[in-house]
Design a protein that fits this description.
The complex is a heterodimer of chains A (171) and B (274). Chain A contains 7 helices and no strands. Chain A has 171 residues and is mainly α. Chain A has one domain. Chain B has a domain of 173 residues: Thrombin, subunit H. Chain B is built from 4 helices and 13 strands. In chain B, a hairpin with a 6-residue loop joins strand 8 and strand 9. In chain B, helix 1 crosses helix 2. Classes of the chains: A mainly alpha (171), B alpha+beta (274). At the A-B interface, helix 3 and helix 4 of A face helix 1 and helix 2 of B.
C-alpha cells in the first residue's frame, strides 16, 4: 500500500518535472526533452490498457495545459504509448511477468530489454509529437533530425528515471 | 480468457484509443492555428477521397441531363463562332486560343463533391496544386459564379460555394449600370440579393446582373442572374432580389479562373494602404 502510494507520488512529481522542463529549459528547435513515454512505461504492469490510456491522456493534458504547449499535443502523443505499452511489455518481458503483475527493473530484465522498451515507447511518442507539432510546415529532414536527436536525449534521460521508478522491484 | 472475450477486449481498447485520439486532435485543431489549417486540409483530402467514389455513381445517373446541358452550351458557342466569322471574315482555330485570356487563366475542372443544404456550402474540385491551381482563384461556369478556392491540395481543391452566408461577389446591374454586392439569400437554391444599389437608379424587373470585374477574382461581364423585386433599405439604397442562372444542384463541370496580375494588384493595394 505504502509502495503504491510512493509510486503515485513519484509519478506526479515526474509529471511536474516534465512541466518544468517544458517551461524553463530551452533546448532549441532540434531537441525535445520528454519524460512522459518513460513514465507511462513504468506504470505498474498490472494496470489494464483502458485505465492506462486514461492516465496517459490526463498526464498529457496536464503537461499541455501547464506548459507552453498547444492543448492536445502531448495527449495525442501519450495515448498511443499507453495503447502499445502492455503488448510491448508482454513481448519483451514475457507473459509470466505480466500475469504476476510484477514490475520490471534493470537487474531483473537486463539493460537490453529495457532499452528496447524505452526506445519503442519514446519513438512512438516522438514520431507523433513531431509530426503533429510541425503541422506540415517543416521539411522531412528537419523532422528526422529532430526525432533522432530527441530520441537520443530521451534515452539518456530515461535511464535514471527508470532506475528511480523501479528501485523498489526485487531481483 | 476465451477467444471471444479477447476480441471484445481488443475492440473496446481500440474504441477507447480512437476516442481519446479524436478528442486530442479536436483540442489540437481548436488551439493551434497551424494545426487547425493542417488538419482541415487533411480532412478535405479525406472527404474528397470518400465522396469522389459516391459522386462517380451519382454522376453516372445524371449523364442524360449533363448531355442536354452540354449540347445546349455547344449550340450557344457555335452561334458565337458563326457570329465572329461573319463579323471578321476569319475563323477561330482552337489550337491557337491561349489558356490565358484578358489577364485571366482558365482551367477546366470536375466537381467531385458539392454541398448544397447548409448555410456554409462548399465544393471539392478534381484539380489541385499539380494543375497550377492557387488559393483565391474563382470558380465559375458560363451561367455564373460558383465560388472561390479556399484550400488547395496536390490533386484536389476546396472551394467556398457562392451559397455561403457571408460571401459576396461584386456585381453590376446591366453591363453599364451601378455596382453592388451580390450575396446568396440564404434560403433558396437559386436566389440572391444585390445590395447597395443607389436609390436614384431606375430599376426594371428582368434586368441582367453581371460580374463587375472589380474583385480581381472574376472577370467582368459574366451573366449571373436576372433582377426581381426591389426593397428600399434605410431610405438610401435598394436591395434587389436576383434569380440566379446557375442551378447549384446540377453543377458538374466548372472553370477555375485565376487573375494573372493578382500579385501586382495586391502589391499596389498594399503600397497605398501603407
Amino acid at each position: 500500500m505504502k509502495s503504491s502510494q510512493n509510486s503515485i507520488l513519484t509519478y506526479i512529481l515526474l509529471v511536474l518535472a516534465q512541466i518544468l522542463i517544458c517551461n524553463f529549459i530551452n533546448t532549441g528547435p532540434y531537441v525535445f526533452l520528454t519524460l512522459l513515454p518513460v513514465l507511462i512505461l513504468c506504470l505498474p504492469l498490472s494496470i489494464p490498457s483502458i485505465p492506462l490510456m486514461l492516465i496517459a491522456a490526463v498526464s498529457g493534458l496536464a503537461v499541455d495545459w501547464l506548459a507552453e504547449g498547444v492543448t492536445g499535443l502531448n495527449m495525442a502523443a501519450a495515448v498511443p504509448v499507453a495503447f502499445i505499452r502492455n503488448p510491448v511489455a508482454r513481448a519483451l518481458f514475457g507473459e509470466d511477468q505480466m500475469e504476476r503483475g510484477e514490475g520490471f527493473s534493470f537487474r531483473k530484465n537486463g539493460i537490453l530489454k529495457i532499452s528496447a522498451a524505452i526506445l519503442i515507447c519514446t519513438s512512438v511518442f516522438l514520431a507523433i509529437y513531431i509530426f503533429l507539432d510541425s503541422a506540415g510546415t517543416r521539411t522531412f529532414l528537419f523532422n528526422l533530425l529532430r526525432f533522432a536527436i530527441s530520441l537520443s536525449c530521451g534515452y539518456i534521460l530515461a535511464i535514471p528515471v527508470i532506475n528511480l521508478l523501479t528501485s523498489g522491484e526485487k531481483k | 480468457m476465451s477467444g471471444g472475450g479477447n476480441i471484445f477486449r481488443i475492440v473496446i481498447n481500440a474504441a477507447v484509443f480512437i476516442l481519446l485520439e479524436v478528442a486530442a486532435l479536436v483540442m489540437l485543431s481548436h488551439n493551434g492555428e497551424m494545426q487547425k489549417t493542417w488538419i482541415a486540409k487533411g480532412m478535405h483530402g479525406v472527404y474528397a477521397f470518400f465522396w469522389g467514389g459516391a459522386e462517380t455513381v451519382k454522376d453516372y445517373f445524371s449523364l442524360r441531363k449533363q448531355n442536354d446541358m452540354l449540347a445546349e452550351e455547344n449550340f450557344r458557342l457555335n452561334k458565337v463562332i458563326r457570329e465572329y466569322r461573319m463579323l471578321t471574315g476569319t475563323d477561330i482555330r482552337p489550337d491557337t486560343v491561349p489558356d490565358i485570356l484578358g489577364g485571366y487563366r482558365f482551367v477546366h475542372a470536375d466537381a467531385v463533391k458539392v454541398s448544397n443544404n447548409k448555410q456554409h456550402n462548399y465544393i471539392i474540385l478534381d484539380k489541385g496544386a499539380k494543375d497550377g491551381i492557387e488559393e483565391l482563384s474563382g470558380v465559375m461556369t458560363d451561367r455564373g459564379v460558383i465560388g472561390i478556392i479556399d484550400a488547395v491540395g496536390q490533386n484536389f481543391s476546396y472551394a467556398r460555394s457562392f451559397k455561403n452566408t457571408g460571401m459576396s461577389v461584386s456585381a453590376r446591374l446591366g453591363k453599364e449600370g451601378p455596382v453592388g454586392e451580390l450575396m446568396w439569400d440564404g434560403v433558396s437554391s437559386n436566389g440572391a440579393v444585390l445590395k447597395e444599389i443607389p436609390h436614384h437608379i431606375v430599376l426594371h424587373q428582368g434586368d441582367t446582373v453581371y460580374t463587375s470585374g472589380f474583385s480581381a477574382i472574376f472577370p467582368a461581364d459574366i451573366p449571373l442572374g436576372v433582377t426581381g423585386e426591389a426593397t428600399v433599405v434605410n431610405g438610401s439604397t435598394y436591395d434587389i432580389d436576383v434569380t440566379l442562372f446557375e442551378d447549384f444542384s446540377a453543377i458538374r463541370y466548372v472553370t477555375i479562373v485565376s487573375n494573372t496580375y493578382d500579385e501586382e494588384i495586391a502589391e499596389l493595394e498594399g503600397e497605398n494602404e501603407e
